[in-house]
Amino acid sequence: MKTPTRIAVTGAAGQIGYALLFRIANGDLLGPDQPVILQLLDLPHALGAMRGIDMELQDCAFPLLQEVLVTDNPEVAFRDADIAILVGAQPRSKGMERKDLLAANAGIFAKQGRALNAVAKREVKVLVVGNPANTNALIAMHAAPDLDPSCFSAMIRLDHNRAQAMLALHLDKSVDSISQLIVWGNHSPTMYADYRFALVDGQSASFALRDERWNREVFIPTVAQRGTAIIEARGQSSAASAANAAIDHVRDWVRGSGGRWVSMALPSDGGYGIPEGIFFGVPVVCDGRQANRIRGLDINTFAREKLQAAVDELVQERDAIRHLLD
Ligand SMILES: NC(=O)c1ccc[n+]([C@@H]2O[C@H](COP(=O)([O-])OP(=O)(O)OC[C@H]3O[C@@H](n4cnc5c(N)ncnc54)[C@H](O)[C@@H]3O)[C@@H](O)[C@H]2O)c1
Ligand SMILES: O=C(O)C[C@H](O)C(=O)O
After folding, report:
1. Which of 64, 86, 182, 278 is buried most, with the most CB atoms less than 10 Å from its CB?
2. Can you give the pTM of this predicted structure?
3. Does this complex have an ipTM over 0.90?
4. Is the per-residue pLDDT at 206 higher than 80?
5. What is the pLDDT of residues 157-173, one digit of tens each?
6. CA distance 114 to 133
7. Ligand 1 pocket residue status of 74, Cβ below 6 Å
8. Where is the Lactate/malate dehydrogenase C-terminal domain (predicted)?
9. Per the structure, how many domains does the chain have?
10. Helix (H), strand (E) at residue 37
11. To test ligand 1's pocket by mutation, which of 21, 41, 42 has the most ligand atoms within 8 angstroms of CB?
């Protein structure tokens, strides 16, 4: 029997939590032979709801689920965690942009970063989902100086999956026939869904994608505004697709992406002229140990403008919470 992997999930009593936990316990994250221990964190008022989820998890009789721990204390939730999925935060409602959540949610990530620093495994893999995800990840990383920056990431995978599905629909192809897509930048309306390097069935897709008007006026804005469209339609922000993207992100990071390009928001190392430190969506291939950036892609004038808009926004967000970075 393998040693169980300890997975901390924050915001466990929320709607993404409910769509995420059962899939992790079922083996969708780490595979059919990897036992897991779930360490669930939410606020004190949600302890009852988490106990109910614990009962339901038990009632599923998942063979891989070794233990469930329920707490309102981050230092308990993150103790010896191998993986931490930070979902707990306020979601936006109609009329808000994700950056409007900065003031509401920033403090959460400073506190949780300190707790990760104190008690998590030194090689913990942290995924920030709570919005604004990129800047919350920056806050958590700064609050955890004893952890390597490569432990931290923020989620842009939902946008990547949205772009892939939309392109497949446009080309009347299956989703898995499409590869080498990228979503650059911030998980916000400035994100840049980029299919310039995309392959369809392993062949360059450029012949099929010559319609620059469709790219600029339909594809890029539709991907960028998909979260808003879902809030408008559902009255609540996306949950099942967000949980699914969190599983895809962490699964590929831990188990490898099988040579496929995936988009992850990582602390910039200065590549592509992106200022160091800010969390920026980039293309990576995961080898089962780490995420390796795809380097040297051509950045033309339009792409440079799009990247710069995301940089400007992330620098503004960083400046708004600078007091949390000291
Ligand atoms: N990055 C993405 O692609 C993406 C996609 C969808 C949603 N989100 C974000 O994920 C977050 C959660 O969304 P949701 O729909 O599950 O919201 P939700 O309101 O249903 O659940 C959030 C949960 O977090 C808990 N929480 C709040 N503060 C906490 C804290 N300090 N510690 C622990 N738990 C805390 C709440 O009590 C609640 O149970 C939101 O910020 C939302 O905007 C991100
Ligand atoms: O848009 C939101 O606020 C929720 C989430 O980030 C999404 O992209 O669906």
Report:
1. 86
2. 0.98
3. yes
4. no
5. 999 999 999 999 999 99
6. 17
7. no
8. 157-319
9. 2
10. strand 36-41
11. 42
The yes-or-no verdict on residue 198 having pLDDT over 70 is: yes
For residues 57 and 89, state if they share a domain. Answer: yes
Residues within 6 Å of ligand 2 by CB: 92, 98, 131, 158, 187, 227, 230, 237-238
The contacts of residue 70 (CB under 8 Å, 6+ apart) are: 12, 40, 47, 50, 51, 54
Residues of 300-320 as b/e, b for ≥16 C-beta within 10 angstroms? eeebeebbebbbebbeebbee
pLDDT one-digit tens code per residue, 210-244: 789 999 999 999 999 999 999 999 999 999 999 99
For residue 306, the CA-to-ligand 1 centroid distance in Å is 28
Q: Is the preceding peptide bond at 63 cis, omega within 30 degrees of 0?
A: no
Q: How far apart are alpha carbons 136 and 144 in whole angstroms? A: 13
Is the same domain home to 25 and 56? yes
| Res. 207 pLDDT band, cuts 50 70 90 | low
Count of beta carbons in the 10 Å neighbourhood of residue 203? 10
For residues 73 and 52, what is the distance between their CA atoms, to the nearest angstrom? Answer: 18
Q: How far is CA 271 from CA 97, 139, 277, 283, in A?
A: 28, 21, 11, 11
CATH of the domain at 178: 3.90.110.10
pLDDT of residue 61 exceeding 60: yes
Same-domain check for residues 187 and 54: no
The count of other CB atoms within 10 Å of the CB of residue 118 is: 13
| Residue 88 CA to ligand 1 centre (angstroms) | 4
> Does ligand 1 come within 6 angstroms of the Cβ of 113?
no
Six-digit token pair at 308?
């710069």
Ligand 1 center to residue 89 CA distance, Å?
4
